[in-house]
Amino acid sequence: MEERVKTNMGATAAALDYDAELMLRVKEGDGASFGVLLEKHRLSVIHFLYRMVQNHAVAEELAQEVFLRVYRSRGTYEPTAKFTTWLFRIATHLALNSLRDGKNERSQERLDDDSNDMPVRQVSDRKPTVEASMVYQSRLEEVRKAVATLPEKQRAAVLMHKYQEMEYSQIARVLNCSESAVKSLLFRAYETLRARLAHMA
């Protein structure tokens, strides 16, 4: 009976999370499903890691390790949380270890594709002027630099909350802390960012 309940819970979780369903297929030996997951999440993981470690080459290397660990864990995978929660927990763990080990030279090299950095709300059909684009890029760079100066866990929390649009409960699972601790991290982080970026208001 207990085994049946556990199986049903797993099936329900998979039904609610298509990524988890794909990962369960990977667990059963479906390599194509892993390719789908890789294609779907690779860029977002690289962008997250780049914002954490501020080095493109290191971010690429860590992203490869993230998906390698995902694949190696396929045999023991259980959909007890959203797939992205599990995925970013691995990514965050590797990023924090990289920063603490001092392997990152913190170069300011930028990603080639900045399309996922900050969503732009379109308010006009007119093409922005060169001046407007330069101002936007300058402000974007200031935001990036301000986020990069945050303490590691605050930075990770902000990146997951602001850029990945993850809920408090997901971030708490990733960082292995309570939701109240996540809210505290975010409050302190956003207060710091508001102070550092006050001149842009």
Description:
By secondary structure, the protein is an all-alpha fold. The chain folds into two domains: 1-107, Rna Polymerase Sigma Factor, Chain: A (Orthogonal Bundle), CATH 1.10.1740; 129-201, Winged helix-like DNA-binding domain superfamily/Winged helix DNA-binding domain (Arc Repressor Mutant, subunit A, Orthogonal Bundle). The protein is 70% helix and 0% strand. The protein has helices at 2-16, 18-27, 31-53, 56-72, 83-101, 130-148, 152-163, 168-175, 179-196. The longest helix has 23 residues, at 31-53. Mean pLDDT is 81; it is low at 1-15 and 104-126.
What spatial form do the alpha-carbon principal axes imply? globular
User: Quaternary state, please?
Assistant: single chain
**So, CATH architecture of the largest domain?**
Orthogonal Bundle
CATH class of the largest domain: Mainly Alpha
Taking all Cα atoms into account, the compactness measure Rg is: 19 Å
Class by alpha and beta content: mainly alpha
CATH superfamily of the largest domain: RNA polymerase sigma factor, region 2, helix turn helix motif
Instruction: Describe the sheet with the most strands.
Output: none
**Helix fraction by DSSP (H/I, runs of at least 4):** over 70%
Strand content: under 5%
Give start-end ranges of low-pLDDT stretches. 1-15, 104-126
Total number of domains: 2
